[in-house]
Amino acid sequence: MASESSRSSRSRGSAQKRGILCGHGERPVLRVSGTKENPGRRFWGCVYYEVNDECHFFRWAIPEARSEDPHVVRLKRKVVVLKADMKACEWKLKVAAVFGMVGWVGCVCCWLQVLLNHNQGLPCLVPLKLG
């Protein structure tokens, strides 16, 4: 009896608000499917589902969409295309950042080489008049 009351108390929902009753005259209980076809999908079932096989009350809590709206299908395709474009742009940005960093490092190395050669009195490729 205690298990029945705990099961029915946790399942306040739309089926109970509408006064739907199973074959035993009891309010249905919200359950979660564990089948391969519908894993995690919620359904309304008889309180005595696992105890008594006489009642076969069953109703999906949220019915599946029978056919999707064409507008929704187009939007889903657009999302896929935009995500692919975003990945391509992110890749290009990373490549540009790497080239930029390599360019700056190259410029700093050349500048340091020119300064070191000038301080040591060595000839450099680009004559500079520093101080």
Question: Your description of this structure?
Answer:
- There is one protein chain.
- The protein has 131 residues and is mainly α.
- It folds into two domains: 59 residues, no CATH class; 65 residues, no CATH class.
- This is GRF-type domain-containing protein.
- GO terms for molecular function: zinc ion binding.
Strand order of the largest sheet: 1-2-3
Structure classification: mainly alpha
Give the fraction of residues assigned to helices: 40-55%
**How far is it from the N-terminal to the C-terminal residue, by CA?**
98 Å
* Large-scale geometry: rod-shaped
User: Which radius of gyration do the C-alpha atoms yield?
Assistant: 35 Å
Report on the biggest sheet. Answer: 3 strands, antiparallel
> How many E-type strands?
3
User: Runs with pLDDT <50, length 5+?
Assistant: 1-13
**What is the number of helical segments per DSSP (H or I, 4+ residues)?**
3
Give the tally of structural domains: 2
